[in-house]
Amino acid sequence: MTTPVSLALAIGALVAGAVVGYLLARARTRREEARPLGPTVAELLERLVRSSNNGIVVLNRFGDMVLHNPRAYELGLVRVNRADPRARKAAEQVTETDEPLEIDLSPLEARGRQPEAVLGQVRPLGDGFTVVEAVDHSEAIRLEAVRRDFVANVSHELKTPVGAIALLTEAVLDAAEDVAEVRRFGGKILRESTRLGQLVTELIALSRLQGAERLPDLNVVEVDAVVREALGRTTLSAESADIRITTDHPSGLLVEGDRTLLVTALSNLLENAVNYSPAGSPVSISRRLADGMVEIAVTDRGIGIAEDEQQRVFERFYRADKARSRATGGTGLGLAIVKHVAANHGGSVGLWSRPGTGSTFTLRIPAHVSPDPAAEPARAAKTSPAPRQEKTPERTPRLVVTGQDSPDHGGNL
Predict the structure, then answer these.
(1) Which of its termini does the chain have fewer beta carbons within 10 Å around, N or C?
(2) In sequence order, what are the residues at sequence separation of 6 or more whose Cβ sits closer than 8 angstroms to the Cβ of residue 188?
(3) Confidence of residue 377 (pLDDT cuts 50, 70, 90)
(4) Which range is least confidently modeled, 77-81, 212-216, 323-327?
(5) Is the pLDDT of residue 122 over 90?
(6) Looking only at Cα atoms, what is the longest distance across the chain?
(7) CB within 8 Å of 408: residues ≥ 6 apart
(8) Spatial contact of 285 and 297, defined as CB atoms under 8 Å apart
(9) Transmembrane ranges (predicted)?
(10) Domains with residue ranges and CATH for the chain
(11) Angle, CA of 155, 158 and 160, to the nearest 5°
């Protein structure tokens, strides 16, 4: 039988429990309300480590990994869930000396397109922990190598005509009394000095295109006008080589660009086609609009370019046929200039070639987007005079790029 005392105690216990539960719930609610919205500092630090462009690994006193990010795998700092032995050994030294240390973490063997030059810095964190931070310096090393090669190539290319001019001048002095010999050597001096001047001019142009000087502002340029001017520049050399250049019909296409640079690029492609084509063979120019890009293709029936050389023809001073290039006075910079002109216009240059068949170089430049697409082409066609058509002799069939010989006017490099 329940007594009044026991009943009162039970009711008191229930009330006390309810009060305690209420207080605990209220305290929990206050803690949750006081907790800041968003990630904690620890979470932000973890995100920072994982998103870093540098490889980061934290090691304990035993050389075991405590923390690392995905970039550490990409740079070779971590392999098979273990840190690079060079990093672990350096971490032991840093733990003993408590002084930061720089180490070379470059791959010991070639791994395709993986980073080639990786520099690591090991720093103490205290309590036996160290952090290893790896930085990829491959691009800087590559650019330095390119700069050294460029200086060496320029020195070599300049030395050849300068040396030839010096020797020819001595020959002229020795043959001062022989008018015929003086005239012969004088002509050679003129050719070498012209080549030297052309080389210097193209080096200056290439330097400007690579960022040494600010490029001019881009304007709306008529493609047909560029083709006409480039044809005018190439007429003399084409006639001398007994080569006729044919073009397709005026296109009325417009691009955003610098007319002078575009004419220079197209002229270089035409000069290249003329220089590497046999006498009497055709060279053609075609224009078209494809996927928002204006494509200007120059096709020849020349010697062609081997597949293993097609990726190198746009390098400075590289020549597919060194003997022929020397004979025509080429500098080896023309296609490099074309590549940089295209890149500075947000475009590209493509190449299709087959030895013994010929080559197609395609300059791709973003088309001008007019506020009134229907009116702009009509205005361009109305204001642009028709380009001069170079007539082809009857013995030489007219060649027009259709894409059958070179799909899409060539592939992207």
Answers:
(1) N
(2) 164, 168
(3) very low
(4) 323-327
(5) yes
(6) 150
(7) 290, 350, 362
(8) yes
(9) 6-25
(10) 42-137 (3.30.450.20), 141-210 (1.10.287.130), 219-366 (3.30.565.10)
(11) 110
